Amino acid sequence: MHTSIYAGLCGLLMVWLALQTIKLRRANRVKLGDGGNFVLQSAIRAQGNFAEYMPIVLILLFLLEYNGMYYLVIHAVGIAFLTGRWIHAQGLLTDNLRYRMRGMGFTLTILIGLAVVNILLAVLHLIKS
What we know:
- By secondary structure, this protein is mainly α.
- It contains 4 helices and no strands.
- It has one domain: Four Helix Bundle (Hemerythrin (Met), subunit A) (Up-down Bundle), CATH 1.20.120.550.
- The radius of gyration is 17 Å and the shape is elongated.
């Protein structure tokens, strides 16, 4: 189960993003919300944005693996997704628009690719049966 590696790594990245948010909440004495602090808003969005994209990508990656995709493809896609999410998070945390755009480019390309390949594999399977 190669996807398990990327699910685990995503979990660790989520913890790191959560710790960034917690650190900023403590430093700014904000118990709930963002307290109007732009840096804290950015950290919250970095964590939230990751949480929004991670589940569907992991589901599509798992389905690709389940349908017999070559394991090196699974690893290439998993690494690319994590790289894109890391770049995007760094862009949000450092207010670097170029990193944010590159990270989203990685993510959306991977998401579209996974969706299309999964649809094609499902259609091919239906045609064969």
